[in-house]
């Protein structure tokens, strides 16, 4: 379209195009932000679901193991049961053994009857190589096949595995404990968890089409529901399979529980959750659209009347008829508009003249404010976006830049104090550490009160010079502050330093206060272009602030670093530090 075509576009069309473009941009931004949020929310929800399965399995197993340990202590640490066991072992008569067995059965049943998380329990005589007591028949072959989960000096925990009794096919946990009785004979106590105690978490993983893997303290699988041929469980747990993903949780005893999710199941669940959320959003959007259409139709006709009345406000015409709408509130407002018409026409003439007078002043004022305000607002927006997305590094950098810009853009004062200068310098260093590899340290007096006036931007140019002209990886920058009758500042670095010729030129350009007539000779910036600008600003600021009552000196050697020393008076008034005011 040529320029003449653009000129022929009406204001109404231009407003519509601009509004539609802004609306489209806002809608696209909102859609992108919401879609990212939904994606993160959905992934977090799925991971939380699988993590809850892991937590429930770990908690169930840990509770069962604790229950087995507690029950073993109640049995083998019971003096009455120990006495019964020794009488049983020492008895030669079958009748006496039967009596002691009955007493043993009563004691064990009394301890375990109400415990639903105990199934098989037996006592085995190591010397006689025979069972003393068992709640169910035990298979010695199955005893030898129980995998060890973890063990310590007193206990050995096995499973999950098939029960040592052929009456149960569900996985159980087993505690084996060997105890030497006072008569010198040893017995083995074996207790199994309930037949159905582990079914809940296993079935929960099955409903999610996932597989459970339990590893012992050595990291070897002792139980798994994963049986797909050609795929190793260890490879999946180590992340070497593209068809499966896994989540793990390890316990303090060394054993762990892992869940394996087929990639297609995870993606299916992901899209299902995403679809549910999007359907909910669409339903809400449709409902809001219907409400919007209803309100649009309700106010469309009255707005046309308002449009007509507003046109009359900007013209010399006057309407002799009272407009009416179907809404009483609108009729009242339309009547008020008619009454204001003449007053507004007069006010418009006055405002036009006044605006012409103030236009230039307002434009200049806004031009001076809009850029820094826009920049700070933009940094604040980046700060919140970083917080929302968990980007702590970006948030820290943005905050440092915002604080530094706020300090730099403060035009109320050309002076500061050492405390504020150190704060601004710390923010500056945080930003520079993103680009440079260096160490930064401040040594200050034990007292934290450094409210001594000084020129603004006293320290930043010196640190900037150290990084710009003396940088080498891993260098150290030290700011040392000493306060006695005056203030002594030292900025030392371990950078590349400078040669003797440049150093002599710099110190020659900044002579001691006793021989100085002005802070810097004309043309010196061209003589030492590498260092002149920053140092010139610092010395000129010190001269303007303290007159000739300061000292500035630079020491440096190549490959050993540079030391800048500054001394200036400690300004006070009424035995208190002078407030930060312009000099």
Show the helix and strand layout:
Layout lengths: L2 H5 L3 H66 L2 H12 L3 H19 L5 E8 L4 E5 L5 H5 L3 E4 L3 E8 L8 E10 L5 E8 L5 H9 L3 E5 L5 E4 L8 H5 L6 E7 L5 E7 H51 L14 H61 L3 H17 L6 E3 H15 L5 E6 L9 E3 L4 H11 L4 E9 L2 E8 L6 H10 L14 H4 L4 H15 L4 E7 L3 E9 L2 E2 L2 E2 L6
Parallel strand pairs: 12-14
Antiparallel strand pairs: 1-2, 1-6, 3-4, 4-5, 5-6, 7-8, 7-10, 9-10, 11-13, 14-15, 15-17, 16-17, 18-19
Helix pairs in contact: 2-6, 2-8, 3-4, 8-9, 9-10, 10-11, 12-15
Describe the structure.
Helices cover 52% and strands 20% of the residues. By secondary structure, it is of the alpha+beta class. The strands form five sheets. It has a six-stranded antiparallel beta sheet with strand order 2-1-6-5-4-3. Strand 14 and strand 15 form a beta hairpin. The longest helix is centred in the first third of the chain and has 66 residues, at 11-76. It is flat, with a radius of gyration of 42 Å. The two termini are 59 Å apart.
Indicate the percent of residues in helices. Answer: 40-55%
Radius of gyration: 42 Å
Instruction: Give the terminus-to-terminus CA distance.
Output: 59 Å
Question: pLDDT below 50 for ≥5 consecutive residues: which ranges?
Answer: 516-529, 573-583
Instruction: Quote the average pLDDT.
Output: 76
User: Strand arrangement, largest sheet?
Assistant: 2-1-6-5-4-3
Q: Figure out the total of helices.
A: 15
Largest sheet: 6 strands, antiparallel
**Count the strands?**
19
Give me the secondary-structure category.
alpha+beta
Shape: flat
Beta-strand portion reads 15-25%
């Amino acid at each position: 379209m040529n320029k003449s075509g653009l000129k022929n576009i009406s204001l109404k069309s231009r407003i519509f195009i601009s509004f539609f473009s802004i609306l489209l941009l806002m809608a696209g931004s909102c859609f992108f932000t919401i879609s990212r949020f939904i994606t993160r929310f959905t992934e977090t929800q799925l991971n939380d679901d699988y993590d809850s399965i892991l937590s429930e399995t770990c908690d169930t197993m840990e509770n069962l193991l604790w229950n087995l340990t507690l029950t073993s202590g109640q049995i083998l640490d019971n003096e009455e049961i120990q006495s019964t066991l020794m009488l049983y072992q020492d008895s030669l008569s079958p009748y006496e053994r039967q009596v002691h067995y009955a007493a043993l059965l009563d004691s064990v049943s009394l301890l375990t009857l109400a415990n639903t998380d105990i199934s098989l329990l037996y006592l085995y005589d190591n010397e006689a190589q025979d069972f003393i007591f068992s709640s169910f028949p035990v298979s010695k072959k199955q005893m030898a096949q129980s995998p060890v989960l973890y063990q310590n000096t007193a206990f050995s925990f096995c499973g999950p595995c098939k029960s040592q009794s052929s009456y149960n096919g569900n996985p159980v946990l087993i505690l084996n404990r060997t105890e030497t009785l006072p008569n010198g004979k040893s017995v083995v106590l074996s207790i199994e968890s309930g037949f159905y105690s582990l079914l809940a978490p296993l079935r929960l993983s099955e409903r999610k089409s996932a597989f459970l893997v339990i590893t012992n303290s050595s990291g070897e699988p002792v139980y798994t529901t994963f049986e797909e041929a050609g795929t190793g469980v260890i490879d999946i747990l180590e992340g070497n399979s593209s068809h499966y993903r896994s989540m793990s949780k390890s316990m303090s005893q060394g054993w762990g529980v892992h869940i394996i999710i087929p990639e297609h199941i995870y993606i299916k669940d992901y899209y299902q959750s995403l679809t549910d959320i999007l359907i909910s959003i669409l339903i809400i959007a449709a409902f809001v659209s219907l409400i919007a259409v209803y309100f649009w139709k309700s106010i469309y006709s009255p707005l046309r009347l308002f449009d007509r009345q507003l046109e009359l406000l900007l013209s010399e015409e006057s309407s002799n008829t009272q407009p009416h709408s179907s809404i009483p509130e609108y009729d009242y407002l339309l009547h008020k508009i008619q009454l204001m018409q003449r007053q507004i026409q007069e006010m418009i003439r006055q405002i036009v003249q006044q605006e012409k007078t103030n236009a230039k002043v307002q434009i200049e004022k806004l031009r001076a404010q809009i850029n820094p305000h826009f920049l700070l607002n933009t940094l604040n927006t980046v700060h919140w976006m970083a917080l929302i997305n968990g980007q702590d590094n970006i948030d820290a950098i943005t905050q440092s830049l915002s604080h530094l810009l706020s300090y730099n853009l403060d035009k109320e004062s050309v002076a500061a104090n050492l405390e504020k200068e150190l704060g601004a310098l710390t923010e500056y260093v945080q930003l520079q550490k993103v680009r440079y590899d260096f160490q930064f340290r401040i040594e200050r007096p034990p007292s934290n009160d450094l409210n001594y006036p000084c020129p603004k931007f006293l320290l930043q140019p010196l640190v900037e010079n150290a990084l710009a002209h003396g940088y080498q990886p891993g260098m150290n920058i030290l700011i040392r502050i000493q306060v006695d009758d005056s203030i002594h500042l030292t900025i030392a670095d371990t950078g590349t330093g400078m040669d003797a010729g440049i150093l002599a030129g710099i110190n020659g350009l900044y002579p001691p206060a006793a021989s100085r007539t002005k802070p810097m000779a004309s043309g010196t910036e061209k003589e030492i272009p590498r260092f002149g600008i920053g140092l010139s600003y610092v010395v000129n600021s010190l001269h303007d602030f303290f007159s000739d009552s300061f000292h500035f000196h630079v020491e440096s050697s190549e490959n050993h670093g540079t030391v800048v020393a500054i001394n200036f008076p400690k300004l006070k008034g009424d035995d208190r530090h002078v407030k930060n005011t312009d000099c």
